[in-house]
Design goal:
CATH class: Alpha Beta
Number of helices: 9
Largest sheet: 7 strands, parallel
Strand content: 5-15%
Number of domains: 1
CATH superfamily: NAD(P)-binding Rossmann-like Domain
Number of strands: 7
Strand order of the largest sheet: 3-2-1-4-5-6-7
Distance between the termini: 54 Å
Radius of gyration: 20 Å
Structural class: alpha/beta
Order of helices and strands: EHEHEHEHEHEHEHHH
CATH architecture: 3-Layer(aba) Sandwich
Bound molecules: NADP nicotinamide-adenine-dinucleotide phosphate
CATH topology: Rossmann fold
Helix content: 40-55%
Length: 286
């Protein structure tokens, strides 16, 4: 195991750092003497976070960017290397929620979700790999979701974007073999962040929410211990049971999940009527 000082002066890009898990992660790296480069769209928040980080790590900086745009996502990596001379760790954490009745989702919204939640991670990763190869290695952390273990209703597109991230990361485990680039796939369970306030429709989940600092700590531990896949909170009885049940009794889990937040019969009826009158996905239910 490596010591805490192994993060000293490491350049760490953290996307989605203007709130929640990314914010906690950038700060946690700064406290270890690493140099976080915080990325998101809300610049004021990034400025405030960077001032906080600079009291632990004077070279901490930020880049305001819309990661749903390929050029901006790639430029985050290029600007970081130009500014700090290298990149050691890339944490792909930015995402939007997509919690919506399937009949209300348009193809454009579906594409936006894939672009921000998955393609942004691919674009930053592809931009970073040549630098990491040149440097002899580094780490990429992809923040996925427990929603890829058990998919709640109304989360199809969100889960699809995270499943794409899972497949991409798992492929990199083998494709980057021997390169010195280690990839971590991290699945947060329910975490207390503003993502819950951004849902298009109310969520049925009313259980415990864990602090984002817990995820930041697990990201750091996973890098240190060269873990491949981590669920946070780790060894949580309910999450472990949910995973075990979805493996041994998938039909039961599907039924249980559908009961927790059911698709209302009246919504389905409206969707049928709208479909009969020629409406398309996204406009089937008001
Ligand atoms: N909280 C949970 O319960 C939970 C559970 C499972 C997985 N996760 C995953 O954990 C990660 C962090 O989520 P969180 O809970 O911390 O949510 P959050 O507080 O809503 O943070 C999301 C971050 O992503 C950024 N972002 C969104 N769209 C962006 C874009 N187009 N370009 C650049 N940045 C963008 C946001 O910043 P701006 O709006 O300023 O751009 C924000 O900083 C996400 O990948 C999420 O899917 C969260």
């Amino acid at each position: 195991m490596e010591s805490a000082n192994d993060f000293k002066n490491k350049v760490v890009i953290v996307t989605g750092a203007s709130s929640g898990i990314g914010h906690a992660t950038a700060l946690a790296f700064a406290k270890l003497g690493a140099i976080p480069v915080s990325v998101a769209r809300r610049e004021q928040r990034l400025q405030e976070l960077t001032e906080q980080c600079q009291s632990f790590s004077p070279d901490a900086s930020y880049i305001a960017a819309d990661l749903g745009i390929q050029e901006e996502a790639e430029n985050v990596v290029h600007k970081t290397v130009k500014r700090h001379g290298r990149v050691d760790i890339l944490v792909n954490n930015a995402a939007i929620p997509m919690h919506k009745l399937i009949y209300r989702i348009s193809a454009t919204e579906a594409e936006d979700t894939m672009r921000i939640n998955f393609l942004s991670c691919l674009w930053t990763t592809f931009a970073a790999i040549p630098y990491l190869l040149k440097q002899g290695g580094g780490t990429i952390v992809n923040v996925s979701s427990f929603a890829t273990k058990v998919i709640p209703t109304h989360e199809t597109l969100y889960a699809a974007s995270k499943y794409a991230m899972n497949g991409f990361t798992k492929g990199l485990w083998t494709d980057l073999e021997g390169s010195g680039i280690h990839c971590v796939l991290l699945h947060p369970g329910p975490i207390a962040t503003e993502i819950w306030d951004k849902l298009d429709e109310p969520d049925a989940y009313n259980g415990e929410l864990y602090p984002p600092e817990l995820v930041a700590d697990e990201i750091i531990a996973a890098i240190r211990k060269k873990r491949f896949e981590v669920v946070v909170p780790r060894n949580n009885f309910k999450l472990v049971m949910a995973r075990v049940m979805s493996l041994i009794a998938p039909a039961l889990v599907r039924h249980g999940v559908a009961q927790m937040d059911p698709i209302k019969p009246e919504s389905l009826e409206k969707a049928r009527l709208s479909a009969s009158s020629g409406k398309t996905m996204g406009e089937l239910v008001d």
